[in-house]
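testing teh design pipeline on a random one, pls ignore if ur not involved
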């Protein structure tokens, strides 16, 4: 382990604060490091490995497609990407799809599409304070948290941030330059913060009234995480544009940009492209992910286990009122919101969990975030909670 840790630390740019573990294999909700220590994974690659590590059907689809055709230019058609687009369109508000390789990349695509659709002079996008949209320059500019901006100015022009939850303030920011409103139905990195129902519905109405495109960034909360295939289904509102990534490939890199035809039609040949986007191996994995999640009972089970997880975390909050204030989330993205004293100990809690073989993280400086594979069992949730209580007792 030390060898790999030391080598890595001297080879890579210093962008990640890593835990001292070299992960070598995974199965379901369990990861194993090179000393044989096992971890209960409530991070899941940041809401990526939603079917669990090395899901057999996904592995089989990857292997079969890799043996047949691993890459071809988007100058030609392939079956896996067509199958994936068909599934995405059949199960969402959208009529059209563009495939890319990551969350930030599809958010870039969404920004370009919204600007092209807005037309000359209408380029400004309003996003929300506390949001997270990626690490490229434009998506950093869209991100409503100053700590991601620092050191990278000047950021691209045309992004403004509205205070969270204040519809009147948001409306005041709309001008002749505005082309879109961009938001996550539930802020993940911002601390597991769902948008209040009336707020999100109000944003939809503002977009309709002012002729703006509504963009939902479902990179983290889309693909079954909340107990519905897409988080917007909880709110009874549909976007005009949506982005997906993390869980779509269960670990293979993929992003999807979806839109209604009237909006998508603003892109014409030459406007946007990606060399790797729609790669057949990655799309074969994503098709299997979609089919598995759409199978009878899968999403209902996510809802049930999400309620179970939330209930257990609520118990922890009641047991340790000095550290935890409550629980919020949807389905299997749940946050244990910490008190100010607890938040000061957030990093220590995550370290204590790690030492006890549980992976979790601290989001937005306010909440412990639990985003296990969607196949997590009640007994694995119980085991995680036991170790969490153990950590809290030491603080
Ligand atoms: C992770 C995330 C992104 C960025 O995705 P990458 O694949 O890391 O570029 C964008 N938006 C949200 C909401 C995310 O959680």
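output:
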């Amino acid at each position: 382990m030390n060898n790999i840790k030391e080598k890595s630390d001297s080879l890579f740019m210093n962008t990640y604060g890593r835990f001292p573990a070299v992960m070598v294999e995974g199965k379901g909700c369990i990861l194993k490091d090179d000393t044989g220590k096992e971890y209960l994974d409530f991070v899941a690659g940041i809401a990526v490995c939603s079917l669990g590590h090395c899901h057999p059907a996904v592995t089989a689809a990857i292997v079969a497609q890799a043996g047949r055709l691993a890459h071809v230019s988007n100058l030609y058609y392939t079956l896996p990407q067509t199958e994936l687009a068909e599934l995405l369109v059949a199960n969402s508000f959208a009529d059209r799809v563009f495939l890319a390789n990551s969350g930030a990349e599809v958010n870039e695509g969404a920004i370009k599409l919204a600007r092209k659709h807005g037309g000359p002079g209408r380029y400004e996008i309003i996003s929300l304070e506390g949001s997270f949209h990626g690490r490229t320059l434009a998506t950093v500019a869209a991100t409503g948290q100053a700590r991601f901006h620092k050191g990278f100015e000047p950021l691209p022009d045309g992004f403004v941030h509205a205070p969270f939850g204040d519809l009147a303030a948001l409306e005041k920011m709309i001008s002749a330059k505005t082309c879109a409103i961009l938001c996550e139905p539930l802020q993940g990195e911002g601390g597991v913060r769902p948008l209040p129902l009336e707020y999100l519905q109000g944003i939809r109405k503002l977009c309709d009234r002012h002729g703006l495109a509504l963009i939902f960034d479902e990179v983290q909360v889309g693909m079954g995480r909340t107990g519905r295939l897409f988080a917007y289904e909880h709110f009874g509102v549909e976007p005009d544009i949506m982005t997906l990534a993390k869980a779509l490939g269960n670990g293979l890199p993929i992003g999807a940009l979806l839109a209604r035809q009237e909006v998508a039609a603003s892109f014409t040949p030459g406007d946007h492209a990606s060399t790797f986007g729609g790669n057949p191996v990655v799309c074969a994995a994503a098709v299997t992910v979609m089919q598995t999640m759409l199978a009878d009972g899968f999403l209902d089970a996510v809802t049930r286990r999400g309620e179970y997880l939330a209930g257990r975390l609520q118990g922890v909050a009641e047991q340790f009122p000095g550290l935890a204030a409550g629980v919020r989330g949807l389905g299997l993205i749940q946050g244990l919101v910490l008190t100010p004293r607890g938040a000061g100990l957030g990093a220590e809690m995550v370290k204590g969990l790690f030492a006890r073989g549980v992976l979790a993280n601290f989001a937005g400086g306010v909440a412990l975030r639990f985003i296990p594979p969607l196949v997590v069992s009640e007994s694995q949730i119980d085991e995680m909670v036991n170790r969490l209580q153990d950590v809290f007792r030491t603080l």
